Hints:
This protein is an alpha+beta fold and about 350 residues long. The chain has 3 domains: about 5-95, Tetratricopeptide repeat domain (Serine Threonine Protein Phosphatase 5, Tetratricopeptide repeat); about 100-165; about 180-340, Alpha-Beta Plaits, CATH 3.30.70.270. The protein has 13 helices and 6 strands. A 6-stranded mixed sheet has the order 2-3-1-4-5-6, sandwiched between helices. It starts with a helix and ends with a strand. The model is unreliable at about 15-20 and about 330-335 (pLDDT under 50).
Amino acid sequence: xxxxxxxxxxxxxxxxxxxxxxxxxxxxxxxxxxxxxxxxxxxxxxxxxxxxxxxxxxxxxxxxxxxxxxxxxxxxxxxxxxxxxxxxxxxxxxxxxxxxxxxxxxxxxxxxxxxxxxxxxxxxxxxxxxxxxxxxxxxxxxxxxxxxxxxxxxxxxxxxxxxxxxxxxxxxxxxxxxxxxxxxxxxxxxxxxxxxxxxxxxxxxxxxxxxxxxxxxxxxxxxxxxxxxxxxxxxxxxxxxxxxxxxxxxxxxxxxxxxxxxxxxxxxxxxxxxxxxxxxxxxxxxxxxxxxxxxxxxxxxxxxxxxxxxxxxxxxxxxxxxxxxxxxxxxxxxxxxxxxxxx
Length: 343
């Protein structure tokens, strides 16, 4: 019995946890449908096959198939975003961090273009509606509609995070930038009126100037990009990871208490300390000092950042490659400190 590409997609998804069975089904049906299925169906089945390859740890075969799909992305726009995201993940798993970063950047550009096109279409509809009612000659209706139009466009712009992201993302590492982080903190401060717990981890690479001086800024940039990838992999659910500038990074951890945040930060510290860095760095071993501040109660973004910076300074004073945590509450002006030693 010949199976349709759509049915293969469903069956392959259901069998992803069954390894060879899913792979055999996807491969055989791809061959059977190669001459009769539509381009969209074949692309859909190809993506599912790449997913099975990835799940089976056959990463090079997944990479070849995803690269082909990525080249045909203009003919298959509805799945281009998924292809570029999966391509970035596979390249990162193979250790091609530069290729992964390029694929991730392309993914964000595609998302921004897609969201911008949707916004443009919606605004065009609203403009037609406005002109139609304007012809009625009723001043009150015109004023009311203008207010409605302005409110709707504002909501579209605020909800269109992908389009906005292009201006709020650090081009080198792919992480969000300081402006995005500040916006996130302001939104949390406005939304959280009652008791709440938020932690912020401020990270600074130890002696990074020596890397630039010894190997040059291009190698330094390569190292910073890799830090961005490692932080993206490490980030707990709901976290926001950002690059503030230079070799300074930050992780915003809503809902995470002081001890959990300190342990999470130490996990990131150990990940960096034991990471196998690109050969361009030679024998250089990158480590990081991390300051963690936890606030319980009303959120004051400036105070939270300042206390994290104090903790980071303490980590450097105690020998670097360590985590120092401070806890700040609305009723405690001299918070207790905790630290994790280097290992």
